[in-house]
Design a protein that fits this description.
five-stranded mixed beta sheet; alpha/beta; 2 domains; Nucleotidyltransferase, domain 5; 44% helix; 10 strands
């Protein structure tokens, strides 16, 4: 006999394995985190200077069930208490995604509960609902991570419009590549942010691509090339490079573009709320620049705490909850889609 479910207080078990974090979380009522367990592979991939997909997939296989067990235990629930299971099905590394999807399908089948495929990009936006209880749509969202740089108009919980995205490198990817060339450890974003604090952000004028008002597309490959050319030219001339100045100037070029386009997006969408999400949302310079500009224009800025900026299952559980409330559930034929688009149905 099936239990009676109060959908508003639904308990969601969520899994996230899109890249190099194996995570499971238990969310109740969409916004309350009962547990959020993250097993990071950063130390494993650091010696390679970035994520090695096959190694990431193998570690997910080892970690996924122990992480789920820990999430259930920490939340004080069992699989019998779960009302639905959410899982990231894309975008991401296909091998890594397949591990999470396979585990979620098995758990949903065993518990006889709905399975909900979640778009990783949407999950990042929804992390803000966990961090900010007062946040409600509509708003503009800037999602910035190692794999994505996108501007989105969030009209309602299940109604989004993609305004623009990067044509080449994501901002986080550019951070990591520049950090690697400068000899900084992986992941490079936090290292650049730390180093930039002691540098002069006006020391070097790096280019800002597509810096035209009304354009919501991004491009960071030219900026990356400009920094590489600067470093190589200095080396050929035998000049000493001030790495802190390079880091600060590079970071300012990125944050200028992100900030200007995000503020343009709020005006275009006619909203007074801006949400920042993704791994680069933890960048101190970006948060400071956005806060300053939002204050000038009367825009309310939201961003989650660092643990919810990185890949985590709590954000997937939050997104899955609102899909569950709208009846947007999957079936056991759900598959990983490494390049799924925003708003796509599974």
């Amino acid at each position: 006999m099936k239990k009676t479910i109060n959908k508003k207080a639904a308990i969601i078990l969520a899994l996230e394995t899109s890249c190099d974090e194996t995570s499971a979380a238990v969310i109740v009522g969409g916004r309350k985190i009962l547990s959020n367990i993250i097993s990071s592979q950063i130390p494993l991939h650091r010696k390679f200077g970035g994520v090695v997909p096959e190694i990431a997939s193998r570690k997910h296989i080892e970690n996924v069930i122990p992480v789920v067990d820990e999430a259930l235990k920490s939340a004080g629930v069992t699989l019998l208490d779960i009302d639905a299971i959410g899982v990231t099905y894309g975008p991401g590394l296909v091998g890594a995604l397949l591990v999470g999807v396979a585990a979620a399908k098995a758990l949903a089948f065993a518990a006889d509960v709905p399975l909900i495929g979640v778009n990783h990009l949407e999950g990042h936006m929804f992390a803000n609902f966990l961090a900010q209880p007062e946040l409600e749509p509509p708003f503009a969202a800037l999602v910035v991570s190692g794999g994505h740089t996108s501007l989105i108009h969030v009209k309602d919980y299940n109604d989004f419009a993609l305004l623009g995205q990067t044509r080449d490198d994501a901002a986080g990817e550019a951070f990591d590549k520049i950090a690697r060339v400068m000899g900084l450890p992986y992941p490079g974003g936090p290292e650049i942010d730390k180093l930039a604090k002691s540098g002069n952000k006006e020391a070097i004028e790096f280019p800002r691509a597509l810096a035209v008002q009304g354009s919501f597309e991004f491009s960071f490959s030219g900026l990356k090339s400009a920094v590489l050319n600067y470093l190589n030219s200095a080396k050929l001339r035998g000049e000493t490079v001030n790495n802190a100045d390079v880091a600060a100037s590079f970071q300012k070029a990125v944050t200028d573009v992100l900030t200007n386009k995000a503020l343009d997006a709020t005006e275009f969408c006619q909203v007074k709320q801006l949400v920042l999400a993704g791994g680069v949302a933890a960048n101190s310079a970006l948060k400071a620049a956005l806060a300053a500009e939002c204050s000038k224009k009367g825009i309310k800025l939201f961003y989650p705490e660092p643990v919810l900026c990185t890949d985590n299952a709590a954000m997937i559980g939050c997104r899955a909850y609102y899909q569950y409330m709208a009846g947007k559930v999957s079936d056991l034929y759900l598959n990983a889609v490494p390049s799924v688009k925003l708003g796509s149905s599974f």
